[in-house]
Amino acid sequence: MFSLMYETPSSWVQDVEALGTLTLLSDHAHCELKAAATMQALVAKNPTCDSIVRTLPRFAMEELEHFEMVEALLRERGGKLAEQDTSPYADGLHKGSRANRKSLLLDRLILSHIIEARSAERFYLLSEHLQDRELAEFFGSLMPSESAHRIMFLRLAEGLFPAEDVQARTAELRQMEADLISNLPFEARIHSGPKQ
Ligand SMILES: [Fe+2]
Ligand SMILES: [Fe+2]
Predict the structure, then answer these.
(1) pLDDT tens-digit profile, the chain (196 residues)
(2) Ligand nearest the Cα atom of residue 39
(3) Ligand minimally distant from the alpha carbon of residue 149
(4) Cα of 17 to ligand 2 centre, how many Å?
(5) N or C, which end of the chain is more exposed by having fewer CB within 10 Å?
């Protein structure tokens, strides 16, 4: 469903809910901010690439709208945006993608595709399995747009690079991501590993 090589078990949702959803929401708000920042950086670093310049700004605005929604919900629930520790997921992806890299831009687009896919998978699981139904619906309402972002990044890559390069690199990076996230520590974060 999300074209990922590791499927998160539904028990991950119960484990996250037991830890506390305010921490998860603060992490989620930071993820939305980072998604917007990544899109803006792609435009700034590729100013002569029409498809990137014309596509990404409106998606960056959408991610900022998501940030506002998550932050408002967090506040409504008595929580507050917390300081963010570095993300072992993002760091691991960037380190892991250095091996066999042919093009930095291709890797950035494919990694963004994979991160959006993983977010969509986690939102889907949260929407299905959270006991807190209000929060479940909130995640369910965001899932389609993260899934659309997943497809948008892959289309951008396909428009800029030969199909066989995109396919081969996507397969390598999907495997790398699966190995990474299945071994990350468990935390109340959108991109944490499963509880061992
Ligand atoms: Fe988003
Ligand atoms: Fe997104």
Answers:
(1) 889 999 999 999 999 999 999 999 999 999 999 999 999 999 999 999 999 999 999 999 999 999 999 999 999 999 999 999 899 999 999 999 998 899 999 999 999 999 999 999 999 999 999 999 999 999 999 999 999 999 999 999 999 999 999 999 999 999 999 999 999 999 999 999 999 8
(2) 2
(3) 2
(4) 22
(5) C
Nearest to 177 by CA among 163, 190, 191: 191
Ligand nearest to the CA of 69: 1
- Ion ligand 1: residues, CB within 5 A, are 32, 63, 66
State the distance from the centre of ligand 1 to the C-alpha of 29, rounded, in angstroms. Answer: 9
Distance CA 70, CA 65 (A): 9
CATH architecture of 13-181: Up-down Bundle (1.20)
Rounded Cα distance between 22 and 3, Å, is 29
On the 0-12 / 13-18 / 19+ scale of CB atoms within 10 A, 140 is: middle
The pTM is what? 0.97
Kindly report the number of other CB atoms within 10 A of residue 163's CB atom: 9
